[in-house]
Write a sequence for this structure.
């Protein structure tokens, strides 16, 4: 009896152990399935989870709406992951509270919701508008007040949610390119997307195939009109499409991350040219906010200076003001690192972004470039002049050099000089020209004086 008892106890113990292991395995499997179907940061369904869950509606017509949080990358770059993740969670919660049938987080800055439709009439503008209105606005995240804007792309049909998702993605891309808030899928979008893909592939080959050119636009001292600097601007000579404006291919390069390689190349080219001319004026190079986010810009600048032998004191890095969501965090660090290298930092297109006075106070920058839209509005009405005069005065009071871009006539040049603006740039003084032309221009006019360069 004793031995039989021991055997029974052993069997029970083994069975118990097996059941614990079984339960553990089931729980682990459930967790894995949950993880595969959900996003951990937001708690929303993953892309695969959304497609799988929508499959239960079978052949019913369905709608997929994509909502993209605008400028999330910039926000992450300036305020960090903790804040951007907090914002994504808050957006997901608001979206789930609207009770659409399925809510997914399908890309870095994009949410999706899917639901069955009674009929496939394809009109979803109102639903998008309503969702966007409820989700956009102010969010308070870890002490930061963040203004969220959304764009929407949508698609409807009796096809699978995977197809609707990619069609809505195409529509969303279209919305971005057209700066429209709500866009429904149409087959023409697909064609446009294919064109963009082709352009992206072409752009990747453009540097090697020598289709890219850096051109230079003179910057003059407004007092005596001597050329004291040049801004490097990119041009793409496409073999079939002809000259493509940077305004259309820079955003594409930013979207795909190619701007990092492009930006490095431009910096090296601009520094190389400036160092090889018999001239000691300044060279200005544009740096995209995406470059700031994705690469170590001060290291890239240091390398370009070392390769070319250009003195850091002759280089300006132009950063668009609209890219500064906040003057805190990594942007301040990057500005400070650039200053330590000995280069100057210019805030480009000033007046078009948030123009927050707090970052004017906090950021270590040297030059304020007044956006050309203000300069070109001068003379049209009294307000145009007052705005430019105020920016010049603000810049001067802060001890910064002020640069006016987009000067197209003598009247604007004179008015800006009278306001005390230091440097001028625009078609009136010279359009962007090839390196060889710029070289002969600056070598002819001789070396600029330090006074004009520093705007004292
Ligand atoms: P931006 O940096 O503000 O450059 C000034 C733009 O204004 C240039 O256009 C220039 O040709 C144009 N411009 C200058 N003076 C006048 C004028 O008097 N009237 C008018 N109507 N326009 C004038 P562009 O070369 O087409 O460049 C457009 C934008 O593309 C640039 O604006 C800059 O944001 C971006 N970009 C150009 N090259 C580069 C580059 O190498 N890297 C990066 N990241 N961005 C670049
Ligand atoms: Mg610029
Ligand atoms: Mg500008």
């Amino acid at each position: 009896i004793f031995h039989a008892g021991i055997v029974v106890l052993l069997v029970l113990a083994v069975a118990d152990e097996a059941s614990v292991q079984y339960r553990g395995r089931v729980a682990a499997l459930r967790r894995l399935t949950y993880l595969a179907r959900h996003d951990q940061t937001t708690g929303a369904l993953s892309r695969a989870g959304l497609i799988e869950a929508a499959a239960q509606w079978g052949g019913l017509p369905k709608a997929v709406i994509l909502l993209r949080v605008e400028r999330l990358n910039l926000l992450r770059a300036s305020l960090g992951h903790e804040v951007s993740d907090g914002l994504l969670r808050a957006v997901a919660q608001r979206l789930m509270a609207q009770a659409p049938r399925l809510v997914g987080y399908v890309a870095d800055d994009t949410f999706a919701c899917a639901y069955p439709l009674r009929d496939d009439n394809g009109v979803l503008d109102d639903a998008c508008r309503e969702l966007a209105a409820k989700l956009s606005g102010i969010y308070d995240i870890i002490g930061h007040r963040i203004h969220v804007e959304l764009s929407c792309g949508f698609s409807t049909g009796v096809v699978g949610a995977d197809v609707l998702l990619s069609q809505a993605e195409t529509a969303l891309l279209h919305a971005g390119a057209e700066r429209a808030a709500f866009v429904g899928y149409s087959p023409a979008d697909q064609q446009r997307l294919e064109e963009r893909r082709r352009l992206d592939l072409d752009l990747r080959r453009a540097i090697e195939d020598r289709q890219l050119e850096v051109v230079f636009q003179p910057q003059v001292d407004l007092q005596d009109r001597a050329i004291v600097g040049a801004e490097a601007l990119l041009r793409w000579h496409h073999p079939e499409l002809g000259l493509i404006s940077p305004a259309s291919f820079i955003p594409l390069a930013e979207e795909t991350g190619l701007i990092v390689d492009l930006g490095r190349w431009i910096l090296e080219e601009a520094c190389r040219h400036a160092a090889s001319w018999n001239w000691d004026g300044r060279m200005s190079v544009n740096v995209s906010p995406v470059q700031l986010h994705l690469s170590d810009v001060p290291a890239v600048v240091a390398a370009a200076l070392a390769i070319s032998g250009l003195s850091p004191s002759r280089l300006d890095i132009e950063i668009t003001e609209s890219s500064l969501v906040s003057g805190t965090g990594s942007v301040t660090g990057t500005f400070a690192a650039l200053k330590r290298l000995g280069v100057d930092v210019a805030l480009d297109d000033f007046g078009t972004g948030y123009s927050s006075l707090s970052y004017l106070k906090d950021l270590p920058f040297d030059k304020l470039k007044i956006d050309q839209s203000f300069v070109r509005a001068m003379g049209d009405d009294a307000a145009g002049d007052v705005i430019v005069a105020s920016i010049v005065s603000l810049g001067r009071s802060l001890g910064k050099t002020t640069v006016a871009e987009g000067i197209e006539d003598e009247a604007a040049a004179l008015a800006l000089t009278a306001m005390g603006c230091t440097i001028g740039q625009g078609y009136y003084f010279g359009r962007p020209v090839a390196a060889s032309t710029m070289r002969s221009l600056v070598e002819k006019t001789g070396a600029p004086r330090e006074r004009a360069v520093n705007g004292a």
Notes: The longest strand covers residues 227-238. The chain has a mean pLDDT of 87. The pocket of C2E (ligand 1) is lined by residues 217, 233-234, 245-247, 250, 263, 266, 286-288, 318, 348-349, 372, 405-408, 425-427, 432 (CB under 6 Å). The first helix runs from residue 2 to 37.
